[in-house]
Amino acid sequence: MAVNKSNIKKRSALGKGLGALLKDSPGKEKSGENNEKQNPVAGIFEVPLDEVQVNPYQPRTHFDKTALEELSDSIKVQGIIQPITVRRLADNEYQLISGERRFQASKLAGLKQIPAYVRTANDQQMLEMALIENIQRENLNALEIAHSYQRLLAECELKQEQLGDRVGKNRTTVNNYLRLLKLPPDIQAGIRDQKISMGHARALINVEDVDKQLAIFKKTVDEELSVRKVEALVKELNDGSPKKADKEKDSLDPVKKYEINKLQQKLASHFGTKVSLKSDKKDKGEIKIPFHSTSDLNRILEILELI
Fold first, then answer.
1. Last residue of a domain, one of 80, 101, 123
2. Where are the beta strands (DSSP E) in 60-159?
3. Residue 130 phi/psi, 5° resolution?
4. CB–CB of 152/116 below 8 Å?
């Protein structure tokens, strides 16, 4: 399937450096359908923006508006430094494989045409190329990478070793990303929104109880804990014993401590004074509400609706 050169014109001002990135120089290509099938890169052309469809396999689901506008301003001054990659569907019709940020920013910049590598690919190859090129070139968050890896395994029928070779990662790294998808939705959203890092998430994966997992996650976000502190909390929880032996019998696990502290803070806020809340492993304990004068006592009794 040869490229229709009447609808797009060859870009000649890209320079030799860009051409060197291609396995087959467009200038040395032979025309004909068989040759294009053998060479996935058919050439670099100026493609009309209104003839390009967005990529349905795009792994990135969110584009930062400010960053997109900054890229658009840069394109107005510098032009497109790196061409997008498309596949030809029919005459005057192309589909984006990679480079959607450049594509969207070019539209914002008011460009009518954009330099593009024109490739041939079926749907499965399209999916694989889009996912792999975006993983390698875009600043995806850890969760987007994990979903991309999962799709490559499921939809492209790749094994983990093959996937590792495709994306330049070892099997352990690939597996660490895939394990993120086993975390509860709240924690996955925390990764997506950059409330916690990949390191935090990897530590949380080792907590089997979902409620305790969520409690440590909330503590991590509320107190902005470091990865090392989260790892220590998880280790203490999994070991089932605190560091100090003399407090072993009476100590609570870190999740219970966190819940008690949060409740203590709520009580203090409610009564407008410092409240002491204690609880043991058997869920027995006491609440102390101090008062500093008769009027202060009456205030607390009014809150309790006892007077």
1. 123
2. 84-90, 93-98, 113-119
3. -65, -45
4. no
Nearest residue to 87 (alpha-carbon basis) of 50, 59, 47, 60 = 47
Asked if 233 and 276 sit in the same domain, the reply is no
pLDDT, tens only, 251-293: 566 677 777 877 888 887 777 777 888 877 777 788 888 877 7
C-alpha–C-alpha distance, residues 196 and 212, integer Å: 16
CA distance 12 to 33: 23
The DSSP annotation for 202-249 comes to HHHTT---HHHHHHHHHHHHHHT--HHHHHHHHHHHHHTS-S-GGGTT
Question: What are the C-alpha distances in Å from 154 to residues 42, 111, 132, 145, 184?
Answer: 29, 37, 14, 14, 21
| Residue 111: CA count within 13 A, CB half-sphere | 25
Catalytic positions, written as ranges: 100
The length of the chain is: 307
Q: Are residues 261 and 220 in the same domain?
A: no
54-112 pLDDT, tens per residue? 877 665 656 778 888 888 999 988 888 888 888 888 888 898 887 888 999 999 999 99
Q: Are residues 119 and 14 in the same domain?
A: yes
pTM: 0.45
Residues of the domain holding 263: 247-303
Grouping H, G, I as helix, E, B as strand and the rest as coil, residue 32 is coil
Q: Which backbone phi and psi does 62 adopt, to 5 degrees?
A: -140, 130
Maximum Cα–Cα distance across the chain: 98
Query: What is the domain count for the chain?
Result: 3
